[in-house]
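Just wondering, does anyone understand what follows?

——
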Amino acid sequence: MIPEINVTDLSEKLESEDKFILLDVRELQELDFAKVTDSRLEVTPMSRLSQEGTNALSESARAKDATIYVMCHHGNRSMQVAAWLAQQGWKNVFNVSGGIDAFARRIDQSIGLY
């Protein structure tokens, strides 16, 4: 079972100085519709991960002890990626339940919906 973080808790994390990676696994064209702006955001599309494996990740995300919150549109792709990372040995991986859609609807409508 992959642990999840809800969008309310993610919003609190984003307002903190906590060190983590918000890994957005949506395709690049999806970012035109909705995107969280934060210095801890890293975009690595799921399609790229499926082609390149962990080599697609940034150096900081390759650290298996990094805290990573994985986000997609609704939480399905991110759950798959979070489970895959856990299988590869990552210890602190969380799925963002509801994805960016839930974040936009409940936290910040200005980031957009699609």
The mean pLDDT is 97.
